[in-house]
Every structure is written in structure tokens, then in C-alpha cells.
Design a protein that fits this description.
Number of domains: 2
CATH architecture of the largest domain: 3-Layer(aba) Sandwich
CATH topology of the largest domain: Glutaconate Coenzyme A-transferase
Number of helices: 15
Distance between the termini: 58 Å
Structural class: alpha/beta
Mean pLDDT: 95
Strand content: 15-25%
Shape: globular
CATH superfamily of the largest domain: Acetyl-CoA hydrolase/transferase C-terminal domain
Strand order of the largest sheet: 13-12-11-10-14-19-21-22
Helix content: 25-40%
Largest sheet: 8 strands, mixed
Radius of gyration: 23 Å
Low-confidence stretches: 1-8
Number of strands: 22
Length: 451
Amino acid sequence: MVAIDEIKPKNTIPFNILHAYNQKIVTADEAVKVIKSGDKILAHSNCAFPTALINALVKRKNELKEVQIMHALAVGNVSYMKPEMEGHFRHNAFFIGGNSREAVSDGRADFTPIFLYETPLLFANGFINLNVALIHVSPPDEHGFCSFGVEVGLTKTGAEKAKIVIAQVNKNMPRSLGDSFIHINKIHYIVEVDEEIAELPQGDRDASPEVVEINKRIAYNISELIEDGSTLQMGIGAIPDFVLKYLADRKALGIHSEMFSDGTIDLVEKGVITNEMKTLHPGKIVAGFVLGTKKLYNFINNNPMIEFHRQEYVNDPFVIAKNYKMVAINSAIEIDITGQVCSDSIGQKFYSGFGGQLDFIRGASRSNGGKPIIALPSTTKDSKISKIVPFLKPGAGVVTTRGDVHYVVTEYGSVQLFGKPVRERVISLINIAHPDFRESLLKYASENKYI
């Protein structure tokens, strides 16, 4: 494996490419001068968030009005969402992270509910006309191509459609392979930086031992559903990485996922994840982005086992369905006893977003031998509120419908709901609810003639 700091240095790049590159180098302050009031800007998402460019843009706040900044999760400084920035900048969230939740809740930022695979199509099909794309890429190779690195899925299509592309070029950005490149001819301004790529380890680092134990039990129950030769999708959070720890005895697993994290590395090195039985991109891990640590970034750098693709491809349910034994593992905020899954809101308060949940639930359901899984603890962290509920909170959004639900897993077991009448699915879900809440759930179900 080639370490990030061993990427080909600039002095080995042909003169014509190096000359074209050098002609475009400016400071961050100079680059963002092209941004005007009312512009629509796409910022590189997740751990590729272009902090230097954003910081330079925020310094211009008094010169700008109603600049719209779009992205999914952003790991970095989002000072443009502060209350004093209102009227100057407005964030449009395709996925709400912890650092944007307050702005969305207060009405200072927008939330666009959309399936992950359809998000880049907003740019491709002209629903949103981007003025500027702010991207964070690797240095060019000898052919003039820079890699989008740790996040390809949402950003590549937007960068291709934006009128102006400003690239933050960072020697620490890993060179991810696949459909993951942009040529310097397509970049208008280059801002060189030398900073570590933001890290976002998966898991709840502040969780109590009791919560950790519950997550491990859920993960074990999920692992019991995963057969040799399965292809896995894993959403964000602690549970998916715990699942991987219980799969060391499996054979020939594959990955086709919107994202993956550090937990994948051990199973690749142990020969458990080989991708050899995949019916789509055999031998390859396919993803749109990664969330993790520098260890993960070194793992993906120049690694021919891994292909990054646009999210409209990776998350297309019809593409996902081509994978044999596709297992989709996704989380929920709450689920009612008929199977309606809320994953993006707590009551009327928007909390996160659709992400790739329904993309993969529907893709896995159409896969030969596929298993779509919704996983959640039976209660909130303080054990006072059941997450399996008689009905969803008023205003809560249904991300995965009761018709889409197949497997539901808690620390008390797993149940399969697909094709079952309401009476059977109600009983099944109550059986994996926390024992303290089963009696009240049964009472509600009886009173409403569900059972």
C-alpha cells in the first residue's frame, strides 16, 4: 500500500501540466472573490469539507447577501451558520449533522429531504444551477488528474456542472480510485493547503458501558443474519462497525455501500472481505465516501481494491439490486408497531436526513437473497422511552414505509415483517421491544383491534 505522503511529487509531473497548474494558483482570499451575492455554492461534504476556502468566504460576509451554501454532513468549521451570518449566508442541508442542527431548527438554514442517490441529480438535471463548487482534492498525477479523495459521491457531479470550480489542493488528501477524478483543465482556481484531513471515527465515544453493551448485542443479532458471500451496506454509527467485529468467521464477503469506515480494514486484512462473490464489480469494494481516521485514508490511497463512484450510481436501488445477497444495515429513531420507520426527525424537529436508507432498503429487497435490515436499540439511552412505539410522534417523518420493512433488529432479537399482516407484525415487534414496555404496547394494540 502506498502511504499518502508518498504520492508522486510535483517535480515528476510533465512541464505542460505543471505549467497549467501553476497558472491557476491563487490565495484562498483571492479565489473566493469570484463569489457574488445570491450565488449557489456546493461545498465538498463530509471529511473533505474545504475549510480554508470556507474561512476565506466567511471573511467576506459584509460584502455578500443571500449566498446559499449546500452540502451534506460537514466535518469542519461551519461559522457561516452562526446567527450573526443570517442574511449573508444560508445553508441548504441535504443531510443534517450535529453542527447544522441548531441552524435548521431555528429556521436560519434549510433542509432538503431527498434520497441520497437523487441528490447529485439536482445538479445534473438543472433543478439547482450551481454558480461555484468549492472542492478539496489531491495533487494532480502525471496526467493532470486530481482525486476527490475521501468523498466522491455527492461532489463530482456538482463540480462538473458548476460554472466555476475552486479547488483546495492538499497533499494529504488520499488518491482514491474509480470514478473519482477531476482534471486541472476543469478547475478555475487552485488554492494549495497543507493540513490533515478531518477525521470522524465511527461509534459513540461518549456512550456509557450500558449503551455500548446494547449496541454490541444488536450488532451480534444482525451478524447472525449475514451469510457467507453476502455483500454489505453499512450506514453511519456505532452499530455497523460493531457488526463487522462479529464476522471474522464468514467467507467471501463484499462491500457495496454509500460509505464505510475503519472497521472494514481488519476484515480485508483477515481475508474475510474479498468481494470475490460479488455479482457487480467483483473483487472491488464500491462506495461513495468514507468516514473515519487517517488509518482509513492510508488504506484507500491508491488501493486498486476500492472504487469510488458517484452517489447516483452507488445508491441507485436498481444498481444495488444487482448484488447477490445484498445486506443493508440502517438505523432508526423510532418504529411504530405496524412497521413505519422514522429516521430523519424527532417529532416535528428535523434531526438528520434520508441518507441512503431507503435506497438500500429497496435495493436489498430486490437482490437475490438480499436482506434489508432496520436496527435500533429498544429504548433511548436513559431507558425511559421505548423506541418501538404505538404510533410515531406527531410530525415525525416516515422514511421507510411499513411496506418496505423486512428485518427489524433490537438487542432482544430480530424479526422478519415482510408479507405479514398487521396482527403478526405487531406481535413480532412487541416481542423485541424492551420488556418494560411490552404490556403497554399490547394494551394499545388490543384496544385498536390490531391483535
